[in-house]
Amino acid sequence: MGLALPQIWYLLTLAFDVAGAIAAATLAIWIWPRRDSLGQAGTAIVLALLLTAIWCIAQAASHGNSFGAAFAESVRNLAWLIVIYRLFASDGRHASLAPIRPVVIALAFVEVLHLALGMAVVRLPLDWDITRTALNVIVMFRLLVTVGGLVLVHNLYAGASRDVRPALRWPTAALAVMFVFDLNLYTIAYLGGHWPVEFAAARGLATIAMVGLLAIGASKGRDVLRLRPSRAVTFQTFSLLLIGVYLVAMVGVAQWLSYAGGDFARLVELGFLTIASATAVLVLPSKRMRGWFKVALAKHLFQHRYDYREEWLRFTRTIGNSGSAAMPLGERVVQAVADIADCPAGLLLTAGDHGDLTLAARWNWPEIAVPATAFPTKSLGFFERENFIVDLDDIRAGHDDRGETDHVPAWLVADSRAWALVPLIHYERLVGIVVLARSAVKRGFDWEDFDLLRVVGQQLASYLAENASQEALAEARRFDDFHRRIAFVMHDIKNLASQLSLLARNAELHAEKKEFRDDMLLTLRNSADKLNALLARLSRYGTGAVERLEQVSTRDVTASVMAMFHSAPQVTLTENQDLTITANRHSLEQVLVHLVQNGIDASAPGEPVFLSVAMDGLGARFEIVDSGCGMSPEFVRTRLFKPFVSTKNGGFGIGAFEARELVRAMRGRLEVESREGLGSRFVVRIPLSATTDVYQNFTSNEQRVA
């Protein structure tokens, strides 16, 4: 068989009261050794909690209908009034505020009257009318005590000093829970003329809530534990509350109209519902309405206008959005500033070629006409010096705090939609200015707006400056690559020019000799071939790449090199083994010619430069030895193969670097030994063709196995 409804309420009341008694007694025992954390009211709170536990037990034992339960409730209320008085003493207000003691005494007197009247009702034989009147007076006494308790709790917290409020926050909240619940309970009982069993069943829950708040107040982390709803949650909550109030008002008016009766009243009721619904559909979703609502909530419910964590996260997402579908950086900068002030559009003005500010980006503002010179150069110093955020409405109203009127162009003042100017300052230099369009909600700027916009402006200025530096660096790298290519070209042309100059000088002495003329034609033909090859290699200069590798005879390479220096008798071929290597002949000849020419340049006139080629293990070894000035170990280690570093007057410093890169491209190695005053020895090692074939076959087999 199922339980009857009265039995269910009885069991709920019993469970809640027992749980409240256990919670109150447990907290009293826990607080006792740490009661000093509650100030002068610690002992009183422990006593009040124990009496509250006894009252809960009396409630559970008698279902709240006995004189004993009423007596326990009165004793409980008196104990909590003492707690309130002791809490006033925490900052000395029990002595300075004279009305407190009389109020507490008056409320205690009302509780005593309540007990006396209750005992009279129980003990004396009274008729029903007198008993009902007495019960109403008893409920009135309870209401007086609860209202007085709430007034005391409100004055306790509202009049406390800033230093004392953190300690009072949780005890006053606990007392407010208890008195507010009793106020509603006894109000319902007074108006309804009977005891609300269903509502009274939750008195134990109110006690548990009060005990929980007191436990927080006695804990160590009470000062940092606060209810801090986010602005989004607050906005949604108040939106739902507003909708609920609207619906209740609509239903109430509709019910009031329905009481009039008749067809006309029905028509008015339907018309009102239609107009109210249409108004809600049009007004509530509007951006202006939502903007006004947010401003009102931020102004009256929060200490600060902005949720700085949320603003910073949104700012970071806007600026950091660099995907393929992202807006350009300039538009993201404008949006980042506009989102803070809830502005629908904006402009970004940055420095042009002549120092004045020009339009760099526009966000959701295509209709505004921006002059070619948006801000003259003479006005920029004001913003750099003052870092001043200009409210254009102030200028239109005739206000001129710092002389900003003379520095704001007329086209901005004339456009009524232009609202504010936010300078972007980076290391005391004006990077740009963001122009904000007017917000949907008309409001003025305050100190919090100015501080946040100024900080955001500095951050955005650093982003713009960094972006400009990266673009300048990329452009410099492109120019550097171009200069490198030109330097390599000039180096090869310089070598060819040296050979042609030498040929011209010798032609003055030996032009009548047939052998010289034949050599001259050969040299000219080789120079022309080199110039054509140079033009073909322009696209790969500076990378150390070679066109292709093939089998080359070392004897052919040395013969070509020696033919280029036939007019330089100091160049001597000491050993010339005929080996087959895998290389690019033209690149190898270019390397050897460069090294031989360096040997000639570093040696005194007539000093020999030796060239030799011999087999060395699995490769061919080309050696170029001179007895010139030599190089220091530090120069060889740190500067010899570094581009654009040279010890020659007018040298480009890229020959050794290019030679090493070309040798590496042919799978070889370039080595150098040098001593100052004694000379240098360069060794070029190129693998033999047989070695290359073995390596390629081994690699192919590995790939097939894999």
Write the layout of secondary structure elements.
Layout lengths: L4 H27 L10 H21 L4 H22 L4 H4 L3 H24 L4 H31 L6 H28 L4 H4 L2 H16 L12 H30 L1 H22 L3 H15 L6 H13 L8 H12 L5 E6 L5 E7 L16 H7 L3 E2 H5 L13 H5 L3 E9 L2 E9 L9 H64 L3 H23 L13 E4 H11 L6 E6 L3 E4 L1 H18 L6 E8 L2 E8 L6 H6 L16 H11 L3 E7 L3 E9 L1 H17 L1
Parallel strand pairs: 7-9
Antiparallel strand pairs: 1-2, 1-5, 3-4, 4-5, 6-8, 9-10, 10-12, 11-12
Helix pairs in contact: 1-2, 1-9, 2-3, 3-5, 3-6, 5-6, 6-7, 7-9, 10-11, 13-14, 14-18, 18-19, 20-21, 21-23
Strand content: 5-15%
Helix-and-strand structural type: alpha+beta
Total number of helical segments? 24
Number of strands: 12
- Please compute the radius of gyration using only Cα atoms: 48 Å
- What is the average of the pLDDT values? 78
Report strand order across the widest sheet: 2-1-5-4-3
Instruction: Specify the CATH architecture of the largest domain.
Output: Up-down Bundle
Main CATH class of the largest domain: Mainly Alpha
The biggest sheet, with number of strands, parallel, antiparallel or mixed sense and barrel status, is:
5 strands, antiparallel
Shape: elongated
Spans of 5+ residues with little confidence (pLDDT < 50)? 221-227
The first-to-last residue Cα distance is: 80 Å
Q: Helical residue percent?
A: 55-70%
